[in-house]
Amino acid sequence: MGKIGAVFAGFADLASQWAVHTPGGTAGRVQHTGDDFVGFRRGHRDGGVAAWRFERRKMGNRGRFCRFCGLGPPGSGSCPEGTAGRDRHTGDDFGRVRAGEISGSKPGEVYNLVKHVKGKWTGSSNWSTLLDPLNGEQFIRIAEVGEKEIQPFVESLSKCPKHGLHNPFKSPERYLLYGDISTKAAHMLSLPKVSNFFTRLIQRVSPKSYQQALGEVQVTQKFLENFCGDQVRFLARLFAVPGNHLGQQSHGYRWPYGPVAIITPFNFPLEIPVLQLMGALYMGNKPILKVDSKVSIVMEQMMRLLHYCGLPVEDVDFINSDGKTMNKLLMEANPRMTLFTGSSRVAEKLAVDLKGRVKLEDAGFDWKILGPDVNEVAYVSWVCDQDAYACSGQKCSAQSVLFMHENWSSTSLLSKMKDLADRRKLEDLTVGPVLTLSLSRTSPPSPSSPSLSPSVLIAKPNIFFCKAAHLYIIF
């Protein structure tokens, strides 16, 4: 009973603390009723670790809080809108841009971030512009760093020691900090209006349907959920092996590289850079992040969100530049590891220039093989269509070539694939520009051949079918 009494005493103490931090716990505040909810707000920092406190608030009094994030009135410091002059979030905006309003008359702007310049977002002497692929307007301005402007980034990386920003012996409380950052960021991405903002922003720069872009946001959110709380420090779990005699042991530690570089492509503007960036940060590295400039506005906005969630601004440098400038930066800064996702041609050059200090995920050529057993034709045709044309075929798992047994030629597979492909249109971004493969030996489709769209070419002796760069081969 003594233990039970102690437990209840603990609850009573917790309740008294709760009363101090809730609107109903102080004089003059409206008491809670059945229509209130629990949210959380960022509290004080203790030893460098963000502490979260729960705050109950009455929904009927919700006008005091931002309808976009639920974390405070705009301009209060609790809201990611900061001191901007907007009265309310509309659900389509975050940080500096409104996804639905980026246009030639209201162009979005993308900045750089480097610790050497007091950890502030900065412009550049050279601003490049992106053309809206739908109407040709200049709808995004990018502060591209030139070769003569890379020195602050070089110095920022060079100042990071090879034992990193934290490790099992240095500032271990930062593992908990990043667990808290992940918690807050995952919560923010779970909010429908935040999720919708990033989904629409991805669509604005990358030809994806709403569901495909939303899937990218959801995968990112689930990744962050997986590394909440203690999960970050569990990544640094060490091992010990008994030695040959008393007092001897062998210990192994997971150690950061220190200064690192991350270069990501255009096809996944949010998922790839966030997953790779957070993985580097969890383990104590100091990364410089370069996202393809055509889509870097998405990650710039995500960086601002991460800063709001507690990410120290000096932990990550963010740069916009062309490939030549970035290559020069890598050669001068000499990061201890570079993670590159992109073309095989650039990957091969980096492997030589960086003397092997690089991890690569380069271009792929993905085969799909249908054997002699014919089943679930409708489902197989749907999977083939999704793998070939979702994201306009610009994804790692995109179907590059389909090999199918001749048994499938007597089914409605190809006609179903044609019907599914014909549903895709630019208006809803279910398909974007896709090149058609030209074969050296081709002839027009014969009347007896399957009903395929006019863009399909059939090669003699009628065993190759090609639609929009995706090959079908009957064997």
UniProtKB/TrEMBL annotation:
It comes from Citrus sinensis (Sweet orange). This is Delta-1-pyrroline-5-carboxylate dehydrogenase 12A1.
